[in-house]
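Before relying on records like the one below, remember that each one covers exactly one chain. Contacts with other chains, cofactors or solvent are not represented anywhere in the record.
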Amino acid sequence: MQLSQASVKSNLSSAALYSGHRDRIRQRFLLNGFDGMLPYEVMEALLMQVIPRRDVKPLAKQLIARYGGVAQVLDVLENTPGLGRVSAIGLKMFQAAAVYCLQEKFCQAGNLLDRPETTLNFIRMKMGALKHECCMAIFLDAHHQLIEFCKIAEGTVNYVYSYNRNIMELALTLHASGVIIVHNHPSGVCEPSDKDIESTVLLGVELERIGVNLLDHFIVSRDTHFSFAAAGLSLTSLPEVEKK
């Protein structure tokens, strides 16, 4: 069945109109990045890269409405209605590239205590969206430069905190002078529990005995974080209230 001349013209007109819309999005991005864009517009800009010939604005709005934000969409791309497997993999690559870039900056940052935002950005991107408890240790030399970072444990809080010996052994093996501990709270509430404080101090004391300083303990979620050092909490002695 042949399309009428009017239908052909209408289709061409729609294609030209949407092409112009895509050009405008690209121009906005070139001028200001994603600043000033609504979440669905950011999602649309990403979808444009993996679905080149389709109006993806409705899909972008649908995904944001369903999952709540761009980060949440990128976390649950598998089996997402409206997205083919190849498109989903393409978007996952954007997410992985963002983590990779932050990891590069983190590894090349020099004195990490002078650049706490670099550490924080990396660990929140790495761990903030995890749905299970995870603990990571960052080992530093005497100049607070990165030696190594590695995952220590995954599981429940009690499971994670049973790995102090592993951290101490790694610190000795790597000849580290300082350690930063990071764990996530999937609940999104980052205030430390009594168990968090007690276990942190225990680790700090044990590390001190082998000549290694516990420099900070970050608790992170997707949207927020807590730093023991920034909050003025001791890493080697319990608060006075706890001692009584």
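Residues 8-12 have pLDDT under 50 and may be disordered.
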